[in-house]
């Protein structure tokens, strides 16, 4: 069996294990940052209309597509800035675009500038493109996996890692936007840190992320140990966890108070 076929089979098995244990609605999405001089990964389509990164994640997990985003096909200035897509001058223009849209996030432009300049951002020119695919269809080694989950699934993912490492507490980083791009894929794939975030306005409005969903992002180096933890823990506390005895439906407000 060729290395490419073996890797594909391995990724397929990983995805099936995650889906089975966590009862995922959609598969984990593999993300790879391609640096200048590196070849574009195999199996990803660059022949796409401009998308935001959060839309690309949705296209991958719901449609099963593998796509490749560059500055030209990344429609969201927030994502372009988060991933450093472009020259310093081009990324500076994206920054100015963000600054002008301060009304949603800050009382004045000066306050919003401080927020924008403190957000996660890969240095301009460090990334040439981003490959996005369902894990089973990835023909590249990912930098991270992005899971779209409900809180209970995120809890189990977290505990799969903690079961093996005991590395508590896990702390998560958030900001006002760039949450699916910078604070999910960026934090995990570029900085190598586990993170959990809600969708931002773009993720909710453009990518159709449900209000109950969160993003759990897992650096690739932690995937094997998390899977091992999930498998072992599944034998003792399978999702959805312990079943508690229901207390019943309250009859009325008086049900909670003593008479007299």
Description:
39% of the residues lie in helices and 12% in strands. With 260 residues, it is α+β, with helices and mostly antiparallel strands. The chain has one domain. The chain has a six-stranded antiparallel sheet with strand order 2-3-1-4-6-5. The protein is globular, with a radius of gyration of 20 Å.
Strand order of the largest sheet: 2-3-1-4-6-5
Major sheet attributes: 6 strands, antiparallel
Continuous helix count = 9
First-to-last CA distance: 79 Å
Structural class: alpha+beta
Radius of gyration from the CA trace? 20 Å
- What is the residue-averaged pLDDT? 90
Shape: globular
Topology as H/E string?
HEHEHHHEEHHEHEH
Number of domains: 1
Write a short abstract of this structure:
With 260 residues, the chain is of the alpha+beta class. Helix content is 39%, strand content 12%. It has helices at residues 3-22, 53-63, 77-83, 88-99, 109-118, 151-165, 181-189, 201-205, 223-234; strands at residues 29-34, 67-69, 129-134, 144-149, 195-197, 214-219.
Task: Give the tags.
260 residues; alpha+beta; six-stranded antiparallel β-sheet
Write the topology of this structure:
Elements (H helix, E strand, L loop, with lengths): L2 H20 L6 E6 L18 H11 L3 E3 L7 H7 L4 H12 L9 H10 L10 E6 L9 E6 L1 H15 L15 H9 L5 E3 L3 H5 L8 E6 L3 H12 L26
Antiparallel strand pairs: 1-3, 1-4, 2-3, 4-6, 5-6
Helix pairs in contact: 1-9, 3-4, 6-9
